[in-house]
Amino acid sequence: MSTEELFGYASAIVVGLVIGLAGGGGSILTVPIFVYVFGIPTVLATTYSLFVVGVTSLVGSINHLYRKRVDLRVTLAFALPSFISVYLSRRFLVPALPDPLFQFEQFVLPKSNAILYFFAIVMILAARAMIRSDEPERGEAADGQPRYGTLALDGLAVGLLTGTIGAGGGFLIVPMLVLLAGLPIHRAVATSVLIIAANSFVGFLGDVQHTTLNWRFILPFTGLSIVGIFLGIYLARFVAPDRLKQGFGWFVLVVASYMIIRELSQAL
């Protein structure tokens, strides 16, 4: 095993660690790790990401369910429409995207590059949200009554994002649950982890019908990620959440910048 591969497998522990500490965010590391460290094609990397994130988040959500932090009604209202969006995007939209995605005279934008650019933009938005680290106010749900219709529409949108780039979208889900469902931040984080797990599994099921998977690679990587989430859940007792999110936000911003610079340099 090469030094680069050892680094990649060690990064799996970091993915789980971040999810365990922050309740999300590890998913936006998996695709860059798969693409740039292991050299996996972009679309296949998003499939692997869905599996790893789904299993790891499920383990984390079991802990939250045991401690009764998850709002199951809100989970169903948000997740059911999201399931439909995730499955349809993985089953039909992503395979149907043309390759190249765009071409004008000498300029060619391959499908895989377009997904990576989109992923990097999402990472920058996630980094901005984490660096600011402001707890959202109650917004539309200031009266404590969930806005189930709006939650369902937002679930569709997050499902499309998850299905397209293979990330759970926790940085979007948590503020929505606070603003539209009136959940306290700790319950919003716990509920988000369960939604991420379910969304990721549904997206993965949309892929297995037309994708050949390397289980010898994905299962050990997932196992290490699970080790990381147990470590993260333990360390969460001692780490200030705001400092953690800000530090991780800067790290994500650096990775996203690297992705954009690398892709642009290869295109020019």
TrEMBL record:
GO terms under cellular component: plasma membrane
Record key words, sorted: Cell membrane, Membrane, Transmembrane, Transmembrane helix
Pfam families: TauE
Main location: membrane
InterPro entries in UniProt: TM_pro_TauE-like, TSUP/Inactive_protease-like
Domain of life: Bacteria
Intracellular or extracellular location(s): Cell membrane; Membrane
TM annotation in the entry: 12-37, 43-62, 74-94, 114-131, 151-179, 185-205, 217-236, 248-265
Membrane topology: Multi-pass membrane protein
Assigned protein family: Belongs to the 4-toluene sulfonate uptake permease (TSUP) (TC 2.A.102) family.
PANTHER family in the record: MEMBRANE TRANSPORTER PROTEIN MJ0441-RELATED (PTHR43701), MEMBRANE TRANSPORTER PROTEIN YJNA-RELATED (PTHR43701:SF2)
The protein's name: Probable membrane transporter protein
Species of origin: Spirosoma taeanense
